[in-house]
Specification:
Layout: H1 3-24, E1 57-65, E2 68-78, E3 84-90, E4 93-104, E5 107-113, E6 119-127, E7 130-137, E8 140-149
């Protein structure tokens, strides 16, 4: 084999092995804020309708609003008549009142009164202390993640 042919054969062998080497290396997971989307897709969570969860508690929620990652705190309390009330607080926004809470299995749906008078919707699927979901209002919304504490 001539030196030139040997070099070409070696280069071809290395080139064909490169994709296998790269694909076998683990890429560490990085937490990434949810991407903004005008119409976020439903999360992979499945609603369990066998028994409604108790939504009372504090939720730390990570979402994207107007293209910016944001952390909010949502509090849900139970009133004497059995209905729910609550509020959503976050950096740069005034406390927002929760106007309705609906629970279906492990899905908690909140309607919130936004500062401009419009409504925002938060849908959360609760599994243990972990939550996934989405939020939306006119011209904004994103997927969300977070944690529930009692």
């Amino acid at each position: 084999m001539t030196p030139r042919l040997f070099v070409l054969a070696a280069a071809a062998t290395i080139a064909s092995a490169a994709p296998r080497l790269v694909s076998s290396q683990a890429i560490p997971d990085k937490p990434v804020p949810p991407a903004a989307s005008a119409a976020p897709a439903a999360p992979a969570a499945v609603t369990d309708t066998t028994k409604d969860i108790d939504p009372v508690g504090t939720y730390t929620v990570y979402l994207t609003a107007q293209g910016n990652a944001m952390t909010t705190t949502t509090r849900i309390d139970k009133k004497a008549d059995g209905t729910y009330t609550g509020s959503v607080n976050g950096d740069g926004i005034p406390p927002l009142p929760v106007t309705s809470v609906t629970v279906t299995g492990n899905k908690v749906k909140l309607t919130i009164s936004a500062p401009d008078g419009s409504e925002a919707i938060i849908e959360m699927w609760v599994k243990g202390d972990d939550i996934t979901g989405r939020w939306s209002m006119a011209n904004d919304g994103s997927n969300l993640t977070g944690k529930k504490s009692p």
